[in-house]
Give the backbone structure.
Amino acid sequence: MNSDTHSEPPQAPVQTSEPVYQVHVFCCINERPETHWRGSCGGKRSRQLCDYMCRLAMTLGLRRIRINHAGCMNLCEHGPVMVIYPEGAWYKFETEQDVAEILRSHVVGGRPVPRLALSIDPSTLHG
Ligand code: FES
């Protein structure tokens, strides 16, 4: 007799009524050699800037907001880049002032930051 005959049916994934995080930020920290033709966000201080954003979020006491390091998101030429969900809003950032403004205005206040927003044409994406 096959032992699978008496196994329990697979359990359905646990469903929650609301998302775990209200806002989820992914910052690319991918790093390539300086000579790479696409460059990289990590080569432009993205890890330090992302970590600064995390510290600022903690200082502000923000809960249910997650800020994660991410790998390459295929927008290297625009970098450093981050994407914010649930909106799927893309931003370019270069300074501590930029990430602070994105955090305070977009993430906390729900007001986009046009001067840093990226408008991406999907047809221009690399492979
Ligand atoms: S290295 Fe950041 S998007 Fe590719």
The mean pLDDT is 92. The chain is about 20% helix and 15% strand. The pocket of FE2/S2 (inorganic) cluster is lined by residues 28, 30, 40-41, 72-76, 79, 81 (CB under 6 Å).
